């Protein structure tokens, strides 16, 4: 492995940030050189020699953080939300004068969710039938989940690209809602159950066989392996990258 | 085991009937003494010494068959559909003069489906959350399936009896249908997928844990063990019995 | 619901104890009147008016605790381990002079695990084939888990009681270990996977159909509903009760 | 879709062959022009105008069949077993003089099994833990199944290529066989259950999340979509192709 990566964390005292700090400290190929939170100066990152900084902070401050980081040729792995195309354009502006620096902005760091979506896209064209079941705790406000919507859109597009028509379905008597919500021709079913965390199944069926891809996110630490993958990969990817899947091989 | 049961089958040439004949012949404690189909005389059952007769025929002829069987003190295991309360009353009439003879009329011979429903009833009161997912081939006309409806009614009633209120569900933004159909307060989701046969999951959730009961019916032979259970039990249960669950211990 | 139960917790500052305190406080029909830990006097339970006390402490102190509680006619729900028959006999001794007081000692408060085992016992006699898969985090020292062993013993006994013989298995070429460990004639398979918590599936198979009972324990809070069930039930069960299943209806 | 493919089937009266005939007849873009079985002349294929012939026959006759087919510039899709490297070399010999003709030889036509193996290979490097559970009917002679062995080898190789070490496993007390058979460092567990057909799960785990890929083969028709895919693809792939995965995009 050789080299040890010097990593700083912004928002280090928050729930997410402290989990990332634990993950960096447990990684044999990384050293946590700076924990920064509200009130700490970003200069500490420079003096600590941070090469890569993880930012799970707030939309209000993330652009300022990135301007500083890129300006000091520090690579960034960003899980902060709220990145519109306009905001991404600003990041590209920062990077234009620092062509060797990399910034990863990713809406989803769960490796399993990314693989599930990719595999679903790959499988879609071979199956006349596809449905999605997502299962979450009952405190969730939206149904279906964002991941389920995105999966349905990707699968629906793959079906279209392959020239598949409507899914076979002889339902003539339906109790309202039984067949789920339809997104791009793909039925999506949302389960809300005390005790669950975040889970999704994509089911494919053809003559005599089915294929099921299931992702279970058991707790909040599930984004850590994805963040570490981002940290390990960012130096080799200068410029702006949107989506962790760009650092994955399939 | 001792005794060998002498069994006759009505509708023996049909798909279902011939599967039952195979099952009876494979059972070590049974002897198939008569295969009867259209055009054969019921008297053959008597001359063959049938003690128990299985009837998977047609609503048009089943009452006539039962009158004959009971009149000759032959026990009957009946999977033929269409038994209204009025029809059951007629069977009770046949039996009134033959108190030692038994007739089992059952809408469902899949032992696993019966166990699933029973367990779901037993578990219901311990869980704030319950949902049902049923999965079938896409040629099915009704959604949800009859078994899913019945399960939801049983579970919903058990929840009521236990004083459980509404299920926790913070959904505030729902794409129409995502949360399924509601039956007695229990969400039911219907999946239709090429390659599937008949499957159902009942999911229960409470703080930090879930319990799932799943029944998979892989092919048409799945009713055979239930029919054989009926054949083995009927002699000990004179009179009319409705539902195979009455012959099962839980 | 009427009455509010006044509950005290021993070992209230430990991880388990504080989780129980949270659970009691969240329950509408309970009031947490005392949190006791090392150094606190048990007399506080009396002055606080505790009717029922939960003890998840240590084998070294639990008998002393119970002598005090029973002596003051306070009911006890006990998850502390290490109860041999000799120790249970001592508890019976305490209770002999307080016939109206109840003590529940339970090795397992996960309601789902108890239901899974009960349902597995009930289903066993209807299926020629039964296997158990248990899945845990890779830090677990024993394989199979204690729950899997107990389930296999219960299912194996139920098979014997029903006169079932050996399970069908034509395996003639086996890579060592592929068919799992055998406990009372039931194959048990142990999966160890990062990211898992504690999970178990019991699979039953007969001609054309299978039945699966699955329990997923997602996090440490999964014993709370069982403890609360114990608290709600103990007043109606004077004397010593071993096992939470005695307070459950099936 | 345009063009209709003219297809012949060898071994058309066998169980497999007749299922393929049904599949070809049901396909809108194919026409079944010849059903050949023992005693029929292969010349019938030529006179019927077959462009592509499916061969699920016997190792004793398949080379003769292929020599005839290639000699008449008829493409072949072959599921017959027993193809050693020596036999494949003979097929290459036939093809050397017919560069426009294609022959597909595939050991496995179940698309879902191929996708499962491919996805498992792709996912392997992202997960410290991987285990395989395969589930079959109890008449199966070998444990683990051939597909499970192959999957374990592919996953084990992918782990090695990614520099992953041994899987985490703190098991210190094991009942013999509980942790399964080990193939290339991957534990494999074999379930044998009446009622099952052919099923496999590949489980991956990392911090806080798991990914599961499951393939269920419900009945014998599950190879048909793969055979049809071979028929649709073979004209564009002159020469010898070994493995249906070469005609699939991932």
From TrEMBL, chains A, B, C, D:
It catalyses: (S)-2,3,4,5-tetrahydrodipicolinate + NAD(+) + H2O = (2S,4S)-4-hydroxy-2,3,4,5-tetrahydrodipicolinate + NADH + H(+); (S)-2,3,4,5-tetrahydrodipicolinate + NADP(+) + H2O = (2S,4S)-4-hydroxy-2,3,4,5-tetrahydrodipicolinate + NADPH + H(+). GO terms for cellular component: cytosol. It is an enzyme of class 1 (oxidoreductase). CDD domains: DHDPR_N (cd02274). NAD(+) binds at residues 11-16, 79-81, 106-109. The active site is at 136 (proton donor/acceptor), 140 (proton donor). NADP(+) binds at residue 35. Signal peptide: none annotated. Residues 6-109 form the Dihydrodipicolinate reductase N-terminal domain. The keyword tRNA processing does not apply. Keywords: Amino-acid biosynthesis, Cytoplasm, Diaminopimelate biosynthesis, Lysine biosynthesis, NAD, NADP, Oxidoreductase. Residues 159-178 are annotated as: Disordered. Pfam families: DapB_C (PF05173), DapB_N (PF01113). GO terms for biological process: diaminopimelate biosynthetic process; lysine biosynthetic process via diaminopimelate. It is found in: Cytoplasm. (S)-2,3,4,5-tetrahydrodipicolinate binds at residues 137, 146-147. Pathway: Amino-acid biosynthesis; L-lysine biosynthesis via DAP pathway; (S)-tetrahydrodipicolinate from L-aspartate: step 4/4. One of its GO terms (molecular function) is oxidoreductase activity, acting on CH or CH2 groups, NAD or NADP as acceptor. Catalyzes the conversion of 4-hydroxy-tetrahydrodipicolinate (HTPA) to tetrahydrodipicolinate. Homotetramer. This is 4-hydroxy-tetrahydrodipicolinate reductase. It comes from Dietzia timorensis.
């Amino acid at each position: 492995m050789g080299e040890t990566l010097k990593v700083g964390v912004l928002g280090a005292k928050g729930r997410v940030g402290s989990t990332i700090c634990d993950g960096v400290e447990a990684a044999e190929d990384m050293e946590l050189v700076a924990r920064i939170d509200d009130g700490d100066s970003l200069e500490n990152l420079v003096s600590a020699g941070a090469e890569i900084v993880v930012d799970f902070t707030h939309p209000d401050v993330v652009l300022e953080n990135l301007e500083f980081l890129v300006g000091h040729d520090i690579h960034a792995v960003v899980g902060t939300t709220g990145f519109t195309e306009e905001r991404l354009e600003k990041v590209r502006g920062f990077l234009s004068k620092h062509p060797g620096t990399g910034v990863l902005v990713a809406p989803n760091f769960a490796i399993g969710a990314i693989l599930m979506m990719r595999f679903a896209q790959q499988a879609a064209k071979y199956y006349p039938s596809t449905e999605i079941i997502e299962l979450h705790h009952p405190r969730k406000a939206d149904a279906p989940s964002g991941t389920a919507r995105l999966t349905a859109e990707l699968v629906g597009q793959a079906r279209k690209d392959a020239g598949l028509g409507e899914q076979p379905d002889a339902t003539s008597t339906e109790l309202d809602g039984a067949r789920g919500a339809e997104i791009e021709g793909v039925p999506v079913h949302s389960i809300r159950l005390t005790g669950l965390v975040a889970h999704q199944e994509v089911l494919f069926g053809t003559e005599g066989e089915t294929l099921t891809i299931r992702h279970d996110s058991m707790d909040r630490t599930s984004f850590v392996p994805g963040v570490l993958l981002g940290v390990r990969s960012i130096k080799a990817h200068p410029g702006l990258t949107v989506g962790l899947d760009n650092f994955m091989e399939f």
